[in-house]
Amino acid sequence: MQRALPALDQNTAARSLSSELAQRTGALTVAGLSHSYGSGFAVDGVTFDIPAGEVAALLGPSGCGKSTVLRAIAGLIRPAKGTIALGDTDLLQVPARSRGIGMVFQNYALFPHMTVAENVSYPLACQGVPKQERRARVDEMLRLIQLDSFGRRLPHQLSGGQQQRVAVARALAGRPSLLLLDEPFGALDRALRFDLQVEMLRLQKALGITTLLVTHDQEEAQSLASRLVLMNRGRIEQIDTPSRIYDQPRTLFVNRFIGQTSMLTGRVEGAGPERMPVRLTTGELLDLLRPTRFVSGASVVVTCRPEEVSLFPDAGPGRLAARLIVSIPLGPHVIHDLELTDGTGIRCAQLRAQAPDTLLLGDRIFVAIDPARCHVFPPDAIGGDLHASLEGPSS
Amino acid sequence: MRSSGIPYLLPMLVLSGLFFVLPLVLLILFSFTRDGAVSLQNYAAFFEDPFNVKVLTATARLGLETVAGTTLLGLPVALLYWHSGPKTRQVLVFLSLVPMLTSNVVRTFAWIVILGRQGPISQTLMALGATGAPFSLLFTEFGLVLTMTQIDLPLIILPLVAVLSGTRRDLSDAAATAGAGPWRIFVTILLPLMVPGLLAGWILVFASTSASFVTQAVIGGARNVYVPQLIYREVGILFDWPLASAIAVILLVLTGGTLLALASLARHPRFARYV
């Protein structure tokens, strides 16, 4: 009976919060944001928006500029160009301390000399909330994160997961109209991370607060956010829902960054209105049934997901000769790493129930990639070495 | 029995015992003897003379005033360090170390010029019309505090810098996004985090100031007498070594007591550094 009560309390606490917050949160609009540091590290023309109450994730490799965007929104740096608005408020006209933003930092940035309760009440003290009200609010927040009895502890006396929850409570205590999360789960181990992500999502849904998550972890972004903003080298590559980003990546970078991808290089050979034959570097012809924007002779990269690759024991149209390098059972799947005749790696995922168990390492085998689901890109800067290997045979 | 490494430490332990512990023990024993018998007469004699008590309080006051001065000048440097990038931080540490590369005696004599009638302080205030006649800060307590503050400034900057370099920089970012302005960030976040550094610095400055015989004698002059000069007088002029020992022990207790009090403060869990 004692155990059932806290859950009920939490929900009522969350509901009372959400009713107060509903009118205060707004859509976040970032437009034409540019900034550069002395070292040339930059953000260039970043534009995106988050509808009120939604979660978006700013995703990209480290050094892509996502932290700069986050710091600009939080008011910790002043961007050289661009606008940032929350609802109808131009945030750039407002100093950091008055923006009404709750932020969870990468390593939580809890004040080490303050107790949990003092940490949580810090934003309230800054807002000049009377002591009585402050105490009630702190109790409410601690109940919400299920750390009711931890108020008098110091941060170093808590586990990593508990510290993370305190950081979330501190970020939310001041009733912010925007929540910023900077790699909030990065320092936690895998099992705990998932639990806290679910917890975070539940809290966010209950409060209905516009949230921006910054992460380099694609799984984290996909599990929390309804829209992903993919960044690379200071620019936005694609903004879409997680499944559309996975299924329809707009650039080779996006394709490679999200999920696993095998890349086959080749040259378009005699493109027709509904056909796009690609002569791979192995010498084999891959006939993709689709209209193309490439001209004949253009170098291209064909990408496919492991689950879009199937294995065959013998040759056939559209099948490529390959050799099995290694097979790894991974949960319900078996992952096969294969090598085409020119050494290009290709990865295949099969349901374990359907995987042939007669396969031996080094076996010759044939692979087919799903011509409807694979993607074709011009080779980009990441594949700089691709150019070289393509130019080689023709010259 | 496990090898504890003690045999290797033995030579150093013998040296330390011979040159640091033994003299201290002798000093303390000496202070409790008078005419070959154990007695408290040395201490009684010291405290019976109101002049001595005045000198003792003046020494404590000098230490506290210098602590205040170095804190006042050291905190802005520490804050500058906090807000600087790694390059500037290195330069700042170097610059605060530079004064330590010059000997105390040399710096003390430089201050004679600065504080004197023809020195820059007097000249500047004359030029500004703040004072009609040239004046000298030499042989004044204020001049001495000024000098000691300059000489001991690195002793407070270095512990502060050490504490701040081990402090995560996003703490002030976290405070700013929570709604704190610069002043509140300083008072509620940076200052409490600097407490261990401040305590260490205060101990060093207080001990260094109250024992700095040369500077006290040269800048303070004959009118401003402090405990080290008393000891010097007993040892070198009056040849009353037991009394000199007693005074030395009293000075030791004064600084040691401050040290213990501040150190117990620093052990408070809130100031323990776990970040």
UniProtKB/TrEMBL annotation, chain A:
SMART domains: AAA
SUPFAM superfamilies: MOP-like (SSF50331), P-loop containing nucleoside triphosphate hydrolases (SSF52540)
Gene Ontology BP annotations: quaternary ammonium group transport
Domain of life: Bacteria
Alphabetical list of InterPro entries matching this protein: AAA+_ATPase, ABC_SmlMolc_Importer, ABC_transporter-like_ATP-bd, ABC_transporter-like_CS, Mo/tungstate-bd_C_term_dom, P-loop_NTPase, Transp-assoc_OB_typ2
Annotated ABC transporter domain residues: 28-258
Coiled-coil annotated spans: none
Gene Ontology CC terms, in alphabetical order: ATP-binding cassette (ABC) transporter complex
Keywords: ATP-binding, Nucleotide-binding, Transport
Pfam families in the cross-refs: ABC_tran (PF00005), TOBE_2 (PF08402)
GO molecular function: ATP binding; ATP hydrolysis activity; transmembrane transporter activity
Family: Belongs to the ABC transporter superfamily.
Protein name as it appears in the record: ABC transporter ATP-binding protein
Source species taxonomy: Bacteria, Pseudomonadati, Pseudomonadota, Alphaproteobacteria, Hyphomicrobiales
UniProtKB/TrEMBL annotation, chain B:
GO CC aspect terms: plasma membrane
Transmembrane segments: 12-32, 62-82, 91-115, 135-164, 185-205, 243-266
InterPro entries per UniProt: MetI-like, MetI-like_sf
Record has Cytoplasm as a keyword: no
GO biological process: transmembrane transport
Keyword Membrane recorded: yes
Similarity comment: family membership: Belongs to the binding-protein-dependent transport system permease family. CysTW subfamily.
The protein, known as: ABC transporter permease
Protein species of origin: Lichenifustis flavocetrariae
